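// run 5 | inverse folding | seed 20
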């Protein structure tokens, strides 16, 4: 109804596996594993871990090797910022451990995205998820075991609450989904150094009145807060306004904003139902930081990894796959 299904952007298992190899063996500091010499951002303003061998870093190295220094400089805008690591379905403990260990060695916090709820994405580009509730609980157990006492910030289940209130998730699955989200929050918050933000939609899908009760039922009171604009394009200003309205209805909870691609705001052309899917003319947004424009906003984050496709629309590859030309366009359009 509001075209908000752009959150389904988990990367491929192959890409995650490659990142995991780096996470498990890299110092996580100023690593140059990809040949791009990617370093961490200043901890005081941006405490989140930059993966020195992510897709963007590899693209920088490839451009530099082929003498395309201008393009390499543009993609470096992406490669040198921390982005979310989307935990895959097969090896959650190993992946969570690898990313958090690498972040810990670098003195940073891992940013993890959990996107495996059963009946995910309502049959759209990122359909799938755990086979059933028990499989999801086991998966969450694996994630929590992998994180342990290391520092992590977790974005929990993009679109999962939204699809409970927009008529997308069938009625017979709703009670279980609330239970799974509450259980996931409880497990994650039992960890010593893990912050959890439950996804809460974006400034363009509807009104906070439509979702705040569902957030409460899903356990937002036990979370650190909620996340807005995940994988979407609404401006930081509009996202702050939406988040503040929603916060007032859920006990003053803080929130984080995905600013990865919101520099030019949302796309207003084409099919309204797919404006979120690989829209042209977009730009990188505010770089990740904990120094935000409002005390209720805990951080600007790049939850969605810029340059990875939203799905097989407008010429894009499958959801979560690296798309070099789109990444370059995002970077060139940014300041």
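// decoded
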């Amino acid at each position: 109804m509001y075209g908000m299904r752009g959150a389904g952007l988990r990367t491929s298992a192959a890409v995650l596996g490659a990142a995991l190899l780096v996470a498990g063996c890299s110092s996580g500091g100023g690593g140059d594993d990809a040949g791009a010499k990617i370093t961490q951002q200043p901890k005081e303003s941006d405490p989140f871990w930059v993966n020195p061998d992510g897709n963007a870093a590899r693209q920088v190295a490839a451009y530099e090797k082929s003498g395309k220094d201008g393009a390499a400089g543009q993609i470096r805008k992406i490669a040198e910022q921390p982005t979310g690591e989307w935990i895959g379905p097969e090896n959650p403990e190993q992946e969570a451990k690898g990313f958090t260990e690498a972040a810990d060695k670098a003195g940073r916090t891992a940013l993890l995205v959990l996107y495996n709820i059963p009946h995910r994405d309502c049959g759209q580009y990122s359909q799938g998820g755990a086979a059933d509730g028990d499989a999801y609980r086991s998966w969450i157990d694996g994630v929590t075991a992998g994180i342990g006492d290391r520092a992590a910030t977790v974005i929990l289940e993009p679109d999962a609450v939204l699809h409970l209130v927009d008529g997308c998730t069938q009625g017979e699955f709703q009670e279980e989904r609330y239970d799974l989200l509450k259980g996931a929050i409880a497990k994650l918050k039992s960890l010593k150094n893990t912050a959890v933000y439950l996804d809460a939609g974006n400034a363009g899908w509807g009104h906070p009145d439509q979702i705040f009760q569902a957030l409460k039922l899903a356990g937002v009171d036990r979370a650190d807060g909620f996340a807005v604009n995940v994988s979407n394009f609404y401006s930081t200003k509009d996202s702050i306004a939406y988040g503040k309205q929603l916060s007032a209805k859920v006990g003053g909870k803080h929130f984080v904003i995905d600013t990865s691609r919101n520099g030019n705001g949302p796309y207003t052309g084409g099919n309204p139902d797919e404006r979120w899917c690989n829209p042209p003319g977009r730009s990188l947004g505010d770089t990740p930081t904990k120094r935000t424009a409002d005390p209720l906003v805990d951080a600007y984050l790049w939850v969605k990894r810029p340059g990875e496709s939203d799905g097989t629309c407008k010429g894009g590859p499958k959801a979560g796959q690296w798309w070099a030309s789109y990444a370059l366009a995002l970077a060139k359009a940014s300041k």
